[in-house]
């Protein structure tokens, strides 16, 4: 009853004298007015932050096909690297001769195990390496490696810091007991890079009667090792940059092949896995593609090791793997999205030892990194066991990150292809039923009701099944027969009807009513609009709410609906335009349209549909009102025409409020059904809905309707009749 009273009050309050005063929009500073317009503007609720959507960067890439990249040999990738131990051995021998030392020992660092080991000129098996923990209170070399500073000892026997002396090859200098040769003076210097990384220790020593090392010996040794540290660091940086550049070039070539459709996804993944293993000097590489559709954490695993690389047909590909919830490095990374670099796998509680026990493979070090795309974690790249007994460095992490970027791009492109498959399925479903097409073709020459050309007319329940027939009638009445394809127009109308959802208000009946209003405006002003504009406005009104879910833009943003992430503003309106274009691509309604005409048509449809966003309406209304006040409206000005078409779209969209009372009441009732449904859902989510959408606030409906008519509807149709006087009936019926 409140809604009836509201409509009556609106009709009484807004009499003919008052209407002359509403050419200027009513101020919206009072609370009642804000309550009415709240659903149509962007609202930031208390305690929430606006959702920020980064503006997508548009770019175009011209790709060339290079299939040869798939067969090129990657084994030479690291050929430019330096044999560091050999270089250090040569340096150590030079220092031995210059300082006249009796012998020299080279120790290499194993940062993963926190140990140093004796490096021999002829490499030995891993099991025969002599190792010491890096700590104080044992040998000279471990002390130097720990402190990263040189030590010059005149008499190793008398220095309590080194109870184990030099500790090499059974030569012990524990206090006064000497076994083997007698060592006295020791000069031990670390080889440190400028960033503070110690990667080797050079130890020189003299026998009992050779005398001690001098300060000149120390100076020469420190200078040479310092130069070595700087040179090795610079070379490693150069090699890292070179490797990264080659990596980018390779992956870009591979991506070009993939995007050029010369490589299938599985082949590309296998190439990336192989290249990752070679580039990072790992024994094994694994690529996990996450399957998010499964309730469990499932991945398609692609694995390549040194044994498999000898036979390209021995890849382990497409194996389904289920990640455990408690163990497994890959599972942890897949769930958390955080990179994990494990230096000693067996000391890490997250590592699952059962796999090694089953396969006999010994895992030492692991680098595992997520592949992150716009939709979250898409996959995981894992490399195992750095060759030569080391661990994966920060440089390896940077290279792996590059792999992940290209992999994310490839996986995202695969999803796009999958999306295209689904889009084809949707397009198949949007095609109208053949029986509906036959019926429309047979009854295309429909007889319209007598008052069809009046703004007050509204479709009756009996005539609702004939809405497609009436749409066809309107299209063919004001569009030249020589430029239309009638069967395609029929398919277009029926496809649009099929894609309107069965919601109380934003349904095909509403779309038909809006299109009918636009038809009446155009028939009265055909000479003022171009053929392209007529086509644009008819299509835009019929499709302006296609696939509308029955919720507002504010609700979609608050609930973080997928659509809200696609468009920063006018979420639903942009979606309606996108769906419209998809339908138009399938229905070639107009013949002999040039590419420029099609471009103008699409641009006009987008502009017209976006104008139905009430948030945009106030902007256009203000600008056009200013033009009308100055009596400067120019039909030859494209901007003025654009403002007018925007007002025409809004007037047609709101024309339900200009119908006879009972019709307008039913339309309003249907709108409130949608509003209250949205408000109920907000309450279920723990939010406080807007008053207009709160069914407990129904007592304000009458006042809200008066405000809505006064603030939005009447000023809009009043502005329309100012420029198009033959639409005054629409204004009088409001």
Q: How is this structure best summarized?
A:
By secondary structure, the protein is an alpha+beta fold. It has helices at residues 2-13, 16-19, 31-37, 84-98, 140-147, 215-259, 265-279, 306-309, 329-336, 354-359, 394-430, 434-442, 467-478, 486-499, 508-524, 531-543, 553-558, 571-586, 595-610, 614-629, 638-653, 661-684, 701-723, 728-732, and strands at residues 103-110, 115-118, 131-133, 151-153, 183-192, 198-207, 282-291, 298-305, 316-322, 340-342, 366-373, 376-386. It folds into three domains: 84-238, 2-Layer Sandwich (Beta-Lactamase); 262-307 and 315-423, 2-Layer Sandwich (Beta-Lactamase), CATH 3.30.450; 431-733, Catalytic domain of cyclic nucleotide phosphodiesterase 4b2b (Orthogonal Bundle).
- The structural domain count equals 3
- Would you tell me the structural class of the helices and strands? alpha+beta
The CATH superfamily title of the largest domain: 3'5'-cyclic nucleotide phosphodiesterase, catalytic domain
Poorly predicted regions: 1-28, 47-81, 169-180, 308-315
Mean pLDDT: 79
Q: Bin the strand percentage.
A: 5-15%
Q: Alpha-carbon distance between the termini?
A: 20 Å
List the total number of helices: 24
- CATH architectural grouping of the largest domain: Orthogonal Bundle
Which outline best applies? elongated
CATH topology of the largest domain: Catalytic domain of cyclic nucleotide phosphodiesterase 4b2b
* Main sheet overview: 6 strands, antiparallel
CATH class descriptor of the largest domain: Mainly Alpha
Query: Strands of the biggest beta sheet: in what spatial order?
Result: 3-2-1-6-5-4
* Tally of DSSP β-strands: 12
- Radius of gyration from CA coordinates: 39 Å
Helix content: 40-55%
């Amino acid at each position: 009853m409140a809604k009836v009273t509201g409509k009556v009050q609106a009709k009484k309050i807004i009499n003919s004298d008052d209407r002359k005063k509403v050419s200027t929009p009513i101020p919206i500073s009072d609370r009642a007015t804000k309550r009415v317009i709240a659903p149509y503007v962007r609202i930031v609720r208390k305690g929430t932050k606006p959702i920020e959507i980064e503006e997508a960067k548009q770019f175009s890439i011209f790709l060339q096909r290079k299939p040869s990249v798939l067969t090129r040999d990657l084994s030479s990738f690291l050929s430019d690297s330096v044999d560091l131990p050999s270089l250090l051995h040569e340096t150590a021998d030079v220092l031995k001769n210059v300082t006249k030392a009796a012998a020299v020992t080279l120790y290499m660092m194993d940062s993963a195990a926190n140990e140093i080991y004796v490096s021999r000129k002829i490499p030995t098996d891993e099991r025969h390496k002599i190792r010491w923990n890096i700590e104080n209170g044992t040998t000279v070399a471990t002390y130097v490696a720990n402190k990263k500073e040189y030590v010059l000892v005149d008499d190793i026997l008398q220095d309590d810091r080194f109870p184990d002396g030099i500790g090499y090859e059974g030569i012990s200098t524990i206090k006064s007991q000497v076994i083997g040769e007698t060592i006295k003076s020791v000069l031990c210097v670390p080889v440190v890079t400028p960033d503070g990384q110690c990667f080797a220790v050079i130890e020189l020593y003299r026998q009992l009667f050779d005398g001690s090392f001098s300060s000149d010996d120390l100076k020469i040794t420190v200078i040479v090792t310092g130069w070595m540290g700087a040179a090795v660091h610079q070379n490693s940086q150069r090699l890292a940059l070179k490797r990264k550049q080659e990596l980018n070039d390779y992956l870009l070539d591979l991506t070009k092949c993939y995007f050029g459709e010369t490589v299938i996804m599985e082949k590309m993944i296998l190439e990336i896995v192989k290249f990752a293993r070679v580039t990072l000097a790992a024994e094994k590489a694994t690529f996990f593609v996450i399957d998010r559709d499964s309730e469990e954490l499932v991945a398609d695993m692609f694995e390549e090791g040194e044994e498999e690389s000898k036979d390209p047909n021995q890849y382990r590909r497409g194996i389904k793997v289920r990640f455990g919830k408690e163990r497994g490095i890959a599972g942890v990374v897949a769930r958390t999205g955080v990179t994990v670099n494990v230096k000693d796998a067996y000391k890490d509680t997250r590592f699952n030892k059962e796999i090694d026990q089953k396969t006999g493979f010994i895992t030492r070090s692991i680098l595992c990194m997520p592949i992150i795309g716009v939709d979250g974690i898409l996959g995981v790249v894992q490399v195992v066991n750095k060759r030569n007994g080391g661990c994966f460095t920060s440089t390896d992490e940077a290279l792996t990150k590059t792999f992940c970027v290209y992999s994310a791009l490839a996986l995202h492109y695969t999803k796009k292809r999958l999306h295209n498959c689904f889009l084809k399925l949707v397009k198949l479903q949007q095609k109208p039923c053949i029986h509906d097409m036959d019926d429309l073709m047979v009854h295309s020459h429909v007889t319209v009701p007598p008052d069809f050309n009046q703004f007050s007319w509204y479709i009756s329940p009996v005539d609702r099944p004939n809405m497609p027939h009436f749409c066809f009638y309107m299209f063919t009445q004001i569009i030249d027969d020589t430029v239309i394809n009638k069967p395609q127009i029929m398919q277009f109308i029926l496809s649009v009807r099929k894609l309107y959802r069965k919601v109380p208000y934003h349904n095909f009946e509403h779309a038909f009513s809006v299109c009918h209003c636009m038809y009446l405006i155009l028939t009265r002003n055909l000479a003022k609009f171009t053929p392209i504009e007529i086509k644009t406005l008819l299509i835009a009104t019929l499709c302006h709410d296609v696939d509308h879910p029955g919720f507002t833009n504010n609700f979609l943003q608050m609930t973080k609906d997928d659509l809200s992430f696609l468009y920063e503003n006018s979420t639903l309106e942009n979606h309606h335009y996108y769906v419209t274009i998809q339908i138009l691509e399938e229905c070639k309604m107009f013949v002999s349209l040039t590419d420029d005409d099609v471009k103008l048509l699409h641009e006009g449809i987008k502009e017209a549909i976006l104008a139905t966003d009430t948030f945009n309406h106030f902007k256009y209304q203000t600008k056009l009102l200013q033009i009308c006040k100055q009596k400067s409206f120019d039909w030859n000005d494209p901007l003025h025409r654009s403002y007018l078409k925007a007002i025409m779209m809004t007037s047609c969209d709101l024309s339900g409020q200009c119908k006879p009372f009972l019709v307008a009441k039913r339309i309003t009732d249907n709108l409130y059904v949608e509003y209250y449904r949205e408000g109920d859902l907000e309450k279920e989510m723990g939010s406080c809905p807007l008053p207009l959408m709160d069914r407990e606030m129904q007592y304000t409906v009458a006042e809200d309707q008066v405000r809505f008519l006064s603030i939005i509807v009447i000023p809009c149709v009043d502005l329309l009749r100012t420029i198009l006087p033959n639409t005054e009936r629409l204004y009088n019926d409001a």
